Backbone:
């Protein structure tokens, strides 16, 4: 009988220790969330030079050397809300053109924009150039941003 009491006591102590050592605490386990890294995209000098070259060959006639365009005909690229907030749309517009009839800041721009470049690489270069000229601090676009754009046949 004494043996049974001692075994019962050891069993009780053992089970109590097992519960405390295996059991959870009252605090929930903290899981580490993955850290999202922002990768800065750097526009290469070669890409910037290509963008500048295309701008000077094709865009300067309508949007002017200072990027301010011609009111009522060709919109300004300086501080352009459309350009700065719809970068993928700007790439697509550079590749496929745009019909006239856009109203920007209360001004109707009636002149259509014909396609300006033939490749996504060229479109990305020109948009990166314009995003960072004339006081624009528009960041960058990449070929990844342009991956879903369909280039219309001409």
Residues:
């Amino acid at each position: 009988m004494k043996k049974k009491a001692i075994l019962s006591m050891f069993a009780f102590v053992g089970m109590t220790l097992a519960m405390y050592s295996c059991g959870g605490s009252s605090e929930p386990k903290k899981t580490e969330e993955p850290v999202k890294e922002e990768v800065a995209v750097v526009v290469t000098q070669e890409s910037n030079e290509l963008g500048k070259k295309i701008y000077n060959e094709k865009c300067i006639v309508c949007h002017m050397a200072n990027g301010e365009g011609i009111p009522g005909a060709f919109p300004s690229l300086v501080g352009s809300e459309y350009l700065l907030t719809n970068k993928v749309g700007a790439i697509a517009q550079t590749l496929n053109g745009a019909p006239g009839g856009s109203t920007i800041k209360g001004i109707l721009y009636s002149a259509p924009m014909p396609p300006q470049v033939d490749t996504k690489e060229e479109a990305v270069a020109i948009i990166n150039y314009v995003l960072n000229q004339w006081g624009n601090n528009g960041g960058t676009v990449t070929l990844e941003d342009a991956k879903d754009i369909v280039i219309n046949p001409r």
User: Anything to note?
Assistant: Residues 48-131 form a domain with the Cytochrome Bc1 Complex; Chain D, domain 2 fold (CATH 1.10.760.10).
